[in-house]
Structure formats: C-alpha cells, structure tokens
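Standup notes
- DV: blocked on the single-chain target, sequence here:
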Amino acid sequence: MITCIGDLIGKYTGGLPKRINEKCIYLFVLLRFIHYIFFFLLKNKIGGSFIENDYFTWVNLFLFMFSNGFATTALMVLGVLKVKDLRLLNSANFINGFSITLGIAIGSTIALAL
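- DV (later): unblocked, structure below
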C-alpha cells in the first residue's frame, strides 16, 4: 500500500516538470540509486537496528517508489517537450512507450530471479 501511494504521488509531481529545473531532474534520477544501498544493507542485515527498523524500511520504500514515479513521469514529459520538430513527435512517443515497457519487463524478470 505504501508503495502505491508513493508511486502515485511521484507520478503526479513528475507531471509538473515546467516548475522544476531540467538538470535537477537528471540529478534526482541519479541520486535515487542511493536506495539500493539501503536495500542491500537491509537484505544482508548490516547497519544495526536503525536500518532494520520497520519504520525505516517503510520510509525507504515510500521514497524509492516516489522517486521511481517522479523520475519516469518527468523524463517521459521532458522527452516529448524536447522535440522541436513536430514530425518527430510520434517517434519520440514511441521511444518513450517502448522504453517504459522494456524497463518494466526487465524489472519484472529480475524481480522473479531475486
């Protein structure tokens, strides 16, 4: 439930990229990989009681899903806004759709293996 709420809020705020600097969005996409460190620490039970606390796990999951929803939506919107030639707009939309579908497929496959 917490992941759905985080993703929903992230997707909503990611749809407002005109208010956010483009370089900040790119930096945000790179900084969201910090969550993987916490996931690995949690999995290997390293980091003490703070990392293994349920509230920390919930906050980390919420922030990870928020950043995931925000990043995917903001990049999809920015990708289309960057197209200056209207003849290429359909191609940009196809590339965006294909990329998100491929990412979901790869993520689902990796999740099954883990």
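- Follow-up: The mean pLDDT is 83.
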